[in-house]
């Protein structure tokens, strides 16, 4: 159900209050354009999450493009691995999105367990993350902002992709996209090095980063800027050459005088191998391949030995 755009604020509030009751005044979270609250459906008694977005009626841009993008993507996707959008209420001054309620996100969950996720759960959460992206990519949608805060988890440790504000439908051939996407710790090296053309591989690189973080308890490439992050990547995975990444030297931000580091070796990168074993390390290496074309796709990721025999 979508309220008519010309409904005024009072009408929107009345319509909303007829259907939902906000049960906790304290926001569950806050994003760029609005706050998220817990509410209850008066009709079904189901708990839901409400995202309130304030609009400026005098602003020519109207509804933020991120909100429009999220609505469009979520109306198209229908999967148990993607958060569900139930309703949209709109007035000239406010937009209210009603989502299914998920108790937690991966960042908060990791804090609750002090970064110590049991190995079987690491595998389960990784499978669900990859499965969600396989569905997105099959529908020609790039998420572009995979990170622990955008991976929601319920009490049964079911994981769903959320926050599609930066998502894009992609075409062939691929157009040039802005590089200001993906939180810097999970940003693919081709974006960090200034490539204007990128594809589904940026999501899969982020999956590798999140997978490693679940295994080690800490972000893998915790840089405080783009250049610091790219150096953190090089220090662990080695400075890329034309041999391992054809065309890297042609990228706008690549410098011939970058320090030359060698791959540190996964046995020297915290406790990754202890949590995921040899097959998990192999998956990680294939997700974090420098050359985007060599990175595993979501579909191939599900066929990898680490995930292939997982039963959800």
Structure description:
- This protein folds into two domains: 17-100, Phosphorylase Kinase, domain 1 (2-Layer Sandwich); 104-309, Transferase(Phosphotransferase), domain 1, CATH 1.10.510.10.
- It contains ten helices and eleven strands.
- It has helices spanning 9-19, 65-76, 106-112, 119-138, 189-192, 201-216, 226-237, 272-287, 298-303, 305-308, and strands at residues 20-22, 29-30, 34-41, 47-54, 85-90, 94-100, 104-105, 141-142, 151-153, 159-161, 168-169.
- The strands form three sheets. Strands 1, 2, 3, 4, 5 and 6 form a six-stranded antiparallel β-sheet that branches. Strands 7-9-10 form a three-stranded antiparallel β-sheet. Strands 8-11 form a two-stranded antiparallel sheet.
- Helix 4 packs antiparallel against helix 6 (201-216) and helix 6 (201-216) packs antiparallel against helix 8 (272-287).
Key descriptive features of the protein:
312 residues, Transferase(Phosphotransferase), domain 1, six-stranded antiparallel beta sheet, three-stranded antiparallel beta sheet, 10 helices, 11 strands, 15% strand, disordered N terminus, EC 2.7.11.22, cyclin binding, Cyclin-dependent kinase 2 homolog, nucleotide-binding
């Amino acid at each position: 159900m979508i309220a008519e755009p010309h409904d005024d604020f009072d009408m929107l509030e009345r319509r909303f209050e007829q259907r939902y009751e906000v049960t906790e005044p304290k926001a569950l979270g806050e994003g760029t354009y609005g706050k998220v609250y817990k509410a209850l459906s008066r009709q079904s008694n189901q708990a839901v999450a409400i995202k309130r977005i304030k609009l400026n009626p005098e602003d020519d841009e109207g509804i933020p493009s991120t909100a429009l993008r999220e609505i469009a993507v979520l109306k198209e996707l229908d999967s148990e691995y993607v958060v569900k959008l139930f309703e949209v209420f709109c007035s000239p001054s406010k937009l209210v999105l009603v989502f299914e309620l998920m108790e937690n996100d991966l960042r908060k969950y990791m804090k609750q367990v002090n970064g110590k996720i049991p190995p079987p759960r690491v595998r389960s959460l990784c499978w669900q993350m990859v499965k969600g992206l396989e569905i997105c990519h099959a529908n020609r949608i790039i998420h572009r902002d995979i990170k622990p805060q955008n991976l929601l988890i319920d009490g049964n440790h079911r994981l769903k992709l959320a926050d599609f504000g930066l998502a894009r439908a992609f075409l062939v051939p691929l157009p040039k996209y802005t590089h200001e996407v993906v939180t810097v710790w999970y940003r693919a090296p081709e974006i960090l090095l200034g490539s204007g053309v990128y594809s589904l591989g940026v999501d899969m690189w982020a999956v590798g980063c999140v997978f490693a973080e679940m295994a080690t308890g800490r972000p893998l490439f915790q840089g405080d800027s783009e250049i610091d992050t790219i150096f953190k990547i090089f220090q662990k995975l080695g400075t890329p050459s034309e041999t391992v990444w054809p065309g890297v030297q042609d990228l706008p931000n690549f410098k011939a005088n970058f320090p030359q580091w060698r791959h540190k070796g996964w046995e020297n990168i915290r406790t990754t191998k202890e949590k995921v074993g040899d097959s998990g390390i192999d998956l990680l290496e294939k997700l974090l391949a420098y050359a985007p074309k060599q990175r595993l796709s979501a579909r191939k990721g599900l066929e990898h030995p680490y995930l292939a025999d997982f039963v959800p």
